[in-house]
Every structure is written in structure tokens, then in C-alpha cells.
Specification:
It comes from Caerostris darwini. With 257 residues, the protein is an all-alpha fold. It has helices at residues 2-23, 27-33, 42-91, 101-144, 151-175, 177-199, 204-214, 232-256, and strands spanning 222-223, 227-228.
Length: 257
């Protein structure tokens, strides 16, 4: 996480330097950043391009990446809570009599309630982040279809594409850890119930409590209940993007013919 934060902070300055290296003293860029004000000396033009590029990359790359990183850190803390609960459950897996079922049920219910609050809280931000990622990728696709793309534009398109891929990949992989952890807990509970239902008939009350835990539904984080974050979502998302990309490219070739 610290390395990701450092990369997010340094990347805009490095990319701005590369952008200035390829753009140089381009008049159209200088006019864009200065709102039409004319600069004469070349060093001032390069400085303006650097500052403008830095602000541009900060807004379009750093802020979305910071948002995704914040979401991933928050989700990671909840995933750690589930992991610790699962580890504690496995350590007490040898005997159900020493397992404090009431305590485990109450703890698990509290965890589930907090995850539901997390799901509702992150629903809209996750949708905004997904739309940002898809728009970046389709923007790159639209510019690539143009006949001529300058080196400075290639740097910008690379930033857009990398930002889109990072947003989609990081959010999907991170948010899918919560249901994965809940599935592991459910599997451990099922194995514990099966073992003691056969070997120990005197723990019927404890078995019923564990069955209530085992029957709880798996919680998937979602973007306004329109997209549920599972690892399979990456395949469908990038597959859809590539499919539409190929269709658009073929349509453009057909128009030229």
C-alpha cells in the first residue's frame, strides 16, 4: 500500500516531464494552458507545458488512483477481520464443545452488519470509479482510431489506458476478497457441522447455531446493484471492451473502402 501511494504521488511529475520532452514548445499546447496568451521564450513555454501536464495528470490519473487506493485499503481492513475470524474458527475446529457458539454467532453477525454498511457506503463511489475506468479505455480507443497520433498524445493515451486498467483491476480484485473470505468461513462451518453431527449427538443446540451462521448469504460488493464485484467480472469487462473495439475498427476500415 505504501508503494502504491508513493507511485501515485510521483507519477504525475514523471509523466509531465516525459510529456514535455515529446511536446517541447508546441504552440497549440501553450495556447491551451495559457488560454491564448502568447509566450515568446522557449523555456517559459516548456515550463507552462510541464505545469499544465502536471495538473492534467493529477486530475485524470492521481485522483482516480487515490480513490481506488482508499477503497482498497478500506475493503482490505474488512477482509482482514473476516480472515482473522476464519483463522480463529479453524483453531477451535477440533472440538465444538469448547467453541463458544454464542460469541462466534454474535461476532459474525456484527461483522456481516458492518459489511452491509460498507456495501451501501461504497455503492455510488464504486459506480463512479467503474465509469471513469471504462470512459478512459473508450477514450483511448477513440483516439487510436485517428490517423495521426503525436508522441505527446501517446503519453497521454498511455496514462488514460493505464488508469482505466488499474481502476477496473484493482477494485474488482480487492472487492472480491470479501465474498471469497465469507465462502471460506461457510466451508469451514459446513465441515465442522458435518463432523460433529455424525460423531457427537449431544451438541444439537450448538449445531443449530452454527447452521444459522452457515446459511447466511454471501455478500458481494456492488456498484449501485448494477455490477457485482467478482473475479469473473474482469473477463466480461475486458472481453466486451475488446469486442466493441474490434467492431469499431472494422467499421472504420469499411467506411474508408
Amino acid at each position: 500500500m505504501d508503494m502504491a501511494l508513493l507511485v501515485c504521488c510521483i507519477a504525475p511529475a514523471l509523466l509531465s516531464a516525459v510529456f514535455v520532452y515529446f511536446a517541447g514548445e508546441a504552440e497549440n499546447l501553450v495556447d491551451f494552458w495559457t488560454l491564448g496568451y502568447r509566450l515568446i521564450e522557449g523555456k517559459y513555454k516548456m515550463l507552462v507545458n510541464f505545469i499544465g501536464g502536471f495538473m492534467h495528470f493529477t486530475v485524470y490519473m492521481e485522483f482516480p488512483c487515490f480513490t481506488a487506493l482508499s477503497v482498497c485499503i478500506l475493503v482490505h481492513h474488512y477482509e482482514l477481520i473476516l480472515r482473522h475470524f476464519h483463522d480463529d474458527l479453524k483453531t477451535r475446529n477440533s472440538s465444538i464443545k469448547i467453541l463458544k457458539c454464542h460469541m462466534f454467532v454474535n461476532n459474525y453477525n456484527n461483522i456481516v452488519e458492518k459489511i452491509l454498511i460498507l456495501k451501501d457506503t461504497l455503492s455510488t463511489p464504486l459506480l463512479a470509479a467503474l465509469l471513469n475506468g471504462f470512459f478512459n479505455l473508450y477514450l483511448v480507443l477513440a483516439f487510436i482510431l485517428q490517423q495521426e497520433v503525436s508522441f505527446a498524445m501517446i503519453v497521454e493515451l498511455f496514462v488514460f489506458a493505464a488508469t482505466g486498467v488499474v481502476l477496473l483491476t484493482s477494485l474488482t480484485l480487492c472487492c472480491s476478497k470479501i465474498p471469497d473470505s465469507m465462502i471460506k468461513i461457510k466451508s469451514t462451518l459446513a465441515a465442522l457441522i458435518d463432523r460433529h453431527q455424525v460423531n457427537d449427538l449431544s451438541v444439537g443446540r450448538e449445531i443449530r447455531l452454527l447452521e444459522r451462521m452457515e446459511k447466511k448469504e454471501i455478500i458481494y460488493l456492488s456498484a449501485c446493484d448494477m455490477v457485482y464485484f467478482r473475479k469473473e467480472f474482469l473477463l466480461s469487462a475486458f472481453g466486451t471492451f475488446l469486442t466493441y473495439g474490434l467492431l469499431i475498427i472494422n467499421m472504420r476500415k469499411f467506411e474508408k473502402i
